[in-house]
């Protein structure tokens, strides 16, 4: 497939690396495109993020942006639907190039790149699966999905952007429910570091739930949590809501709805 450099300054690349035909019994036959996202800064990105998307996902992204930003999307030519030949190799290749061109265009326009439509395209499918697993308390299976989601968003948005911080908090919230899980301390420390300097009032509402989740992770992994308990106590003295604060996963859902709205 064709590789494109979406934003040379940022080093962001999108590539459809493969396509396969899915003929699952519970779904209509369709083509699944594997999208690889890399952020190159000096050296090549050795840990690219990968997601799978259907034609419909790309079409929904295009249509949403066409409605919201018609002038910015005026020059974009999107692959049309066809009645027959959907599984033809030449058509699949042509569509792949068109999808890459769409993402290339989006990444070079700040208003498109920061749109809710792009965020939905990047994460909705995986978040739906992760939330279902979390609802079943299957945190071990939910974790790698949330991890990949965070790493993907962090290639596209800044470290302390709302989308990235919310994704990071989801990872921490998931790990707080797992006992002595590998790398959980690293994730907790990363989240605490990222929250230093955050001034967004909505995101600051997550700070106490984040401290509580990190405190649990520290305790589960044998690290003294007195430092975090002291931070929580300082916030209490300053009048912040500490007692009865929501759990981190629930708080993320509330703040995300407030910032980005629903579908």
From TrEMBL:
Keyword Membrane: yes
Primary localisation category: membrane
Domain PX: 11-129
Membrane protein topology class: Peripheral membrane protein
GO biological process per UniProt: protein transport
GO cellular component, one term: early endosome membrane
Protein keywords: Endosome, Lipid-binding, Membrane, Protein transport, Transport
Entry superkingdom: Eukaryota
SUPFAM superfamilies: PX domain
Cell location: Early endosome membrane
Pfam families linked to this entry: PX
GO MF annotation list: phosphatidylinositol phosphate binding
The name this protein goes by in its record: PX domain-containing protein
Gene source species: Callosobruchus maculatus (Southern cowpea weevil)
């Amino acid at each position: 497939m064709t590789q494109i450099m979406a934003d040379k300054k940022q080093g962001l690349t999108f590539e459809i690396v493969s396509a396969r035909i899915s003929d699952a019994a519970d779904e209509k036959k369709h083509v699944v495109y594997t999208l690889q996202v890399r952020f190159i800064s000096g050296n090549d990105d050795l840990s690219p993020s990968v997601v799978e998307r259907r034609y419909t996902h790309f079409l929904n992204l295009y249509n949403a942006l066409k409605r919201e930003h018609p002038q910015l999307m005026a020059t974009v030519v999107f692959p049309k639907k066809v009645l027959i030949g959907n599984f033809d190799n030449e058509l699949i290749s042509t569509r792949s190039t068109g999808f890459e061109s769409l993402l290339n265009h989006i990444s070079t326009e700040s208003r498109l790149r920061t749109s809710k439509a792009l965020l939905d395209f990047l994460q909705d499918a995986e978040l739906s699966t992760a939330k279902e697993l979390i609802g079943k308390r299957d945190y071990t299976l939910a974790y790698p999905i949330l991890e990949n989601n965070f790493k993907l968003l962090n290639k596209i948005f800044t470290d302390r952007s709302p989308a990235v911080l919310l994704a990071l908090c989801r990872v921490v919230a998931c790990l707080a429910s797992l006992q002595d899980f590998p790398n959980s301390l690293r994730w907790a420390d990363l989240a605490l570091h990222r929250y230093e300097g955050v001034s967004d009032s909505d995101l600051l509402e997550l700070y106490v739930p984040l401290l509580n989740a990190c405190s649990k992770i520290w305790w589960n992994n044998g690290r003294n949590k007195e430092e975090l308990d002291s931070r929580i106590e300082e916030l209490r003295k300053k009048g912040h809501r500490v007692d009865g604060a929501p759990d981190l996963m629930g708080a993320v859902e509330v703040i995300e709805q407030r910032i980005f709205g629903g579908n």
